[in-house]
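User: I'll paste a sequence; please echo it back and then give the predicted structure.

Assistant: Echoing your sequence first, then the prediction.
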Amino acid sequence: MKGQLSSTVLRGLGGSNTSPATRLQGYEVREYLLEKWGRQCAYCDATVVPLQIEHVYPRSRYGESRVGSLTLACEPCNDKKGTQEITEFLKNDPERLAHILAQLKRPLKDAAAVNATRWLLYARLKAQDLPLETGSGGLTKYNRTTRNLPKEHWIDAACVGRSTPAALEVDKVLPLRIIATGHGCRQRCLMDKFGFPRTLPKQAKRVKGYQTGELVRAVVPTGKKTGTYVGKVAVRTSGSFNITTAHGVVQGISHRFCTPIHRSDGYRYEKGAAAIPPVA
C-alpha cells in the first residue's frame, strides 16, 4: 500500500469513464508527484497509507491544477485542510510551510539530468537508422495496469512504449535473471581492526586458466571423488580447486578434470520465477 493513491484520486485524474489519453496523463502526474514528494503526506509525513493528490492552493480560491501546484496528502490531512489557504492551515507550523512552498518550486533535478542524457542518446541511436521509440515510467505503468499484468521488472520492460501489444502472454515465460557480482575488489590484502595487514598479498586471479566464480564442469574418472560436478569454481594456487554444486561444496578437484562452461564476466545468470505460477 506504500505510496498508493486513493480511488477518489484515480477517478479525478483519469478513471474508467475517461479517455485513454486522460487516464495516461493521470498516471504520469501521479508518478511525478510520488517521486517528487517522497511517497509521503506533505502535511504529516505518513507513508503506509493511501495518498491523495492535493491542491496546495484550493481550486475554490482560484488555485491552479498544474503539476507545480500539487502535492500529496493522506485523507485525514486533506479533509482537515479542506478549502483553507496553506498559510492558514500551517500557521502553527512555519517550518513545514516553508518546506512545502520551497518544494513546490523545486524541479526533479535527477529527472532533468536523465532526460538530457536520454535525448542525446536517442538522437545518436536514431542517426544509425535504428527503430526506436521512447516511453515514460507513467506510460509503462499504464500499459502494465490496463493489461492486468503483475508488477515485475521484466514485465515492465515488455510494457515500455506505445508499441506494446494489446495482449502479452507472460504466464509461460521464465525470465533470465542477471545479477551483477563484480570482478572482485582492489584491496591487496585483508586488514585487522587497527588497519594493519593480516594476510599476505593476493595472488594472481587466474590459476591454470581459471578464475574464482567461473562456472565449470569437472569429470573425475577415478578415485574417491569419481563423478561429474557442475558449479562455481574457487581456484587455489596448487591447482586443486573447490567446486560449489547444487548439493554442496566438493573440495580438491584437480584443474585437469575441469572444463569451462561460462567465463567470469562480472555477472551471475539464473532462471527467475514465473510471474503467474502454474495452476496445480
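Helices lie at 7-12, 20-36, 75-81, 86-89, 94-105, 109-126, 137-146, 153-158. The radius of gyration is 28 Å.
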